[in-house]
Amino acid sequence: MRIESDILKTGGALAVLVGVFVGVVWLPHQGRMNDIDAQVQSRRQQVQSRRAEAKAFETLRDEVEALEAEYAALGRSIPASSDVSPFLSQIGRDLASVGLTDSEIQSETVVTGGDASVIPLSLRIRGSYDQLFDFLRSVETGQRLTRVHDLKITGSPLKKDEPLTVRVELSTFSVTGEQATR
User: Fold this and answer.
1) DSSP-assigned letters across all residues of 121-178
2) pLDDT, position 178
3) Residue 84, φ and ψ in degrees, nearest 5
4) Which among 86, 85, 75 is positioned nearest to 143, based on CA atoms?
5) CA 87 to CA 143: how far, in whole Å?
6) 123-150: pLDDT as tens digits
7) CA 102 to each of CA 126, 128, 142, 163: distance values in angstroms, whole numbers, following the listed order
8) 1, 65, 118, 139: which has the fewest C-beta neighbours closer than 10 Å?
9) SS3 state at 78
């Protein structure tokens, strides 16, 4: 079987047209399609990342709501005054109520920032383990919000006749203006 020259010319012309189409139209568009696919993939990853961030924010929101509810249930407050006299009086009553008479309280420099102040205090207390535990529990559960930063105990809890000495670093807080709570 013999292929005629017209068929060969037509086939050659068709091959040249397909080659031109591939070289001029398809390959450049294929490159753009690859770029677009890469952009789509990148955007999908960004969307997944943002969804994860949104989920994290939802979790944080839930945690904040739970903490706010827990705080409201505590009945503790942050007063609007940095006057610590009532707080120090309460500490004195707490010390006396558990039978601790050998104590020393020092007020440190008040740190103020924005609408809040941190009022650090340093206490040195001598007494039995039970007395010290009861006192710290009364401070931690008192009406005024307090945070114990450091607690150093010296002495031996095994020697019941010797008192322990405890150094407590704590802070209480105050707020001003509309930030005052309860």
Assistant:
1) EEEEEEE-HHHHHHHHHHHHTSSB-EEEEEEEEES-TT-TTSPEEEEEEEEEEEE-GG
2) 57
3) -95, 5
4) 75
5) 9
6) 999 988 889 899 999 988 888 888 889 9
7) 6, 11, 21, 10
8) 1
9) coil
